[in-house]
Here is the input.
Amino acid sequence: MYKGYSGKILRINLTNQRIDVELTSKDLARRFVGGTGYASYLLYQELAQGIEPLGPENKLIFCTGPVTGTVWPTAGRMAVVSKSPLTGIWAESHVGGHLGPEMKFAGYDFIIIEGQASQPTVLSIVDEDVQFHSGSLYWGLKTLKASRLIRRDLGQQHGHVAVIGPAGENLVRYSSIMIDGARAAGRTGLGAVMGQKNLKGILVRGTGEVSVADPARFRTLWQDGHDRVQTNPQALEMRKYGTAILVATKQSIGELPTYNHREGVFEGWDRISAETFHDHYYHTTRACGTCRLACKKAFRIDKGPHKGLITEGPEYEGIMAMGSNVGIDDVPTILVTQHLCNEYGMDVISAGATASFLMELAENGLLTEEELAKLDIQWGNTEALIELMHEIAQRKGLGDLAAEGSHRIAQEKGEQAKPFDMTVKGMEISGQDGRAHRSMALGHAVGARGADHLRNLVTMDQLAYKEVAAERFGKDKLPEICDPYVETHKALATVVTEKVYTIRDSLIVCWYTCSWPPIFWVEDFAPLLASVTGEPAFDSVDEMMQIGTRLVTMKRAFNVREGIRRKDDQLPRRFTHEPFLKGPSKGQTVNLEPMLDEYYQLYGWDVTTGIPTQETLNKLGLDEIAKDLQSRGILSS
Amino acid sequence: MKRVAVLPSRCTGCRVCELVCSESHEGTFQPSKARIQVVSFDMTVQDVPIVCQQCADAPCMEACPQDAISRSPETTAVVVDKELCIQCGACVRACVIGLNQIEPEQKLAIRLDEEKEMPLKCDLCEGNPQCVKFCPTEALVLTETSVKGELSVEELMDALDHFLKQIELPLLEQEGD
Here is the structure.
C-alpha cells in the first residue's frame, strides 16, 4: 500500500456485532485517492439501489484521506458519507476538530458502520481494540455532555468522540454528527442515520503513526505551506474574526440571504457583523488539527438573559441562517440558537432555513392554527426561534413538522407553499444566492448533495480575485468571470473548481485556503499527494484533473442510479423568476439553462438527461459503473 | 536555564506542536510520541499545551537511581541518557505535571515509552525547539526568564486539576436549561 494511508478499513456490523478489518485497496487509492472520492466508489458498491436511508440497509462511512494526520496545513479534517435521509441521494459532510487524525493514528483510513443495534450503543475504537458498550446512559443527553461522559467512562481522556444528540435520536432529517460536542458534520442528516442505527457515539483513540513516502520533500512542501498561510493577510483576518467577515462582504454585493432569500441586503447587518461578534462576545479561538488559519471563534455572553453561555461558533452560515434570513439582528439569539443546534445535534443551515420557510408560510396564512400551536413564528421573533429549536429536536408542536425539512413540508402543503421552498434536491440552500453570485447558481443546482456551497463554490465572481481568476481559468475569461451578475464562463469556472474540490475532499484538506483565501490549488495538491503517497503519477496536474473528473462523475453516477436527472438540477423559482427589489443586486435573476448545457458538455454528460455517457464513463475507467447502469436500463447497452 | 514557556491564552489547540515534535524526534507523525501534549478543556473552550518546564531542582533528576538524568551543558535542558536509563519509572512518578489521578503511571511532561525503552521528555531540540518554531500564534516561547501570560508549574498543575474536576462531574447532574 502507498504511504500516507493507514492501509486498513474497519467494518463494524451493529446487527450481529461483527468486526472486520479489511485492507485499503491500492488500486482504488490510485483511481479515487481517498476521503469522499474513495468512499463514493465504496458507497456505490456497498448500497443497493433504492434502499431506505433510515433503515438498517443504509451504511455510514467515516472517511480520512492520505494527508489526514500529517502536519500539512488544514489536514485535521474528515468526512462522513451515506445515503441522505433528507434528500434520498448522495450524502457527504465534512467536519474539523481532531477525530480524523485520531482515526489514522488508530490505524484506519475508513470506518464502515452497517446494520442496526438492538439497543442504544456506544463504540470504542482504541487502536486495534474495538468494543461495543451500552449507550443507554447517554441516550437523550446533549452532545457536549455525552462526549465528555463517554470519554470519562471509557477512561479515554485523550480520545475524540463523534456523537449524536436528541435530534439524531428523534430522526430529525437534518440532524448532525457532532465531533467532541462542538464540530458538526452538519449537512444531509447523517445524525438521523446514526440515530436509526441506535448508535449514540463512537470514541476513537489512536497511538500509532502516519508516515509519508518522501519525508524530505514533504517537509519542504508543508513548511512552505504553513509560511504561505501565515503570511496571507486574509488568512490572518480570518484568524481574528472567523468566517463572520462574510456578513459585510455579502451585504456589499447584495448576497446576504434575508427573509428567506426574499432580499439580498439586511437592514440590521452591522449589528450581526464580524466586528460586533468580536468586540462584544469574543472568548477564544479554536483551530482544527494543524490549521494555522484558526477560523473557529468561541463566544461568551456576559450580560442579559443568556449570560454565562460559552459556545463555539457560529460561522457565517449560522449567522445568516439564524440572523438575516429570519430577520433577526440580535447576537445573543444567534449564539443561543447556534448552541442549541450543536447541543441537540442538528444542522444550523437547514434548521434556520426551515424556520425562515415556516415564517414565510405563516406570513402567507399557510400554517394552520393547530400547527402553529402557541408559537408566534414570524420574522424577527427571537423567542419563537429559540423555542422552535427546542421543539424541532424533540419533535414537539410545530417542531415535529419542521423536523421533516422545508421540501417535505412544501410537498405536503401543495402549490401555494412551493414558491417559498428554498431547497435543491430537498436540501436547504446555504448562505449564498445565485442572483448575486452567478457561478453559485449553477453550483447550487448541480451539487452532488443538493444545494451546496462547499463542493464547487467559485469565489472569483464573489470576491473579485482578478489575478487568481486569470491564473486558474485564463486571462481571456476576464472581466466576465469576475462579474457576479453574468452567466458567462461560470460553467467553466464551476467545473474546474468542482474537480479541484473533489481532489481536496479526497486528500482531505479544508476548503479554506483553497478558494478563500486562494492559497492552495491543484498545482500544490499534485506534489503534495505524490510526496505523501509515493505514487509518481499523482505528481501531474493533468492526471489530478482527470481524477477530479472521475470523482465528480462517480458521485453523479450514485445519484443517477437513485433517479437524479437534469430535471432535478434546478433552482427554487425565486432565484430564476423573482428579481431582488433593492440593494446592489436589484433586478437580478438567474438564467440557469445555458449554464447547465455547458456544464454537462464540459463533463461529457448527456445534455438532455444529465447522465454521464457510456463513452465518458469508459474514458474515466469507470467501466464497471457503466455496466451497472446498463444492467438497470439507465444507460442503453 | 531555558525552557518552553506556555501561554495558553494564545493557544488555538491546532496541535501543530505535537506533530512537529514527533516528526523531528521520530521521523513520523505520531502525537502519542510527542514530548508536548495538548489538553482540551471542553467546558471553558480552551486548550493548554503541556511540556516539561526543565525545573531548576528537577524532581525527575533527583529521583533517578541511575543518575541517568542530567542538565545538558549545551541547551540547559534536563535530558535522559538512554545508555544509563533502566526504565524504572522513578522520574515519571516524581514529575508533578500530569493527570495523576487517572494516569498514575504516566505524566504529560514525561512519559515512559516501551518501544523506545526510555522516558519521552522535551530536550529543547538542540536549542531550537520545533514546537516553538512552528506554533502559529506564539503560544510557545523559548525563554530563560518569566513571560507575561505564561503558566508557571504551579498554574499548570492547577489547570490539570481543573481538567480533572471537569471530568468528574456526576453523570446525572441537573440540566441547566
DSSP finds 27 helices and 17 strands in chain A.
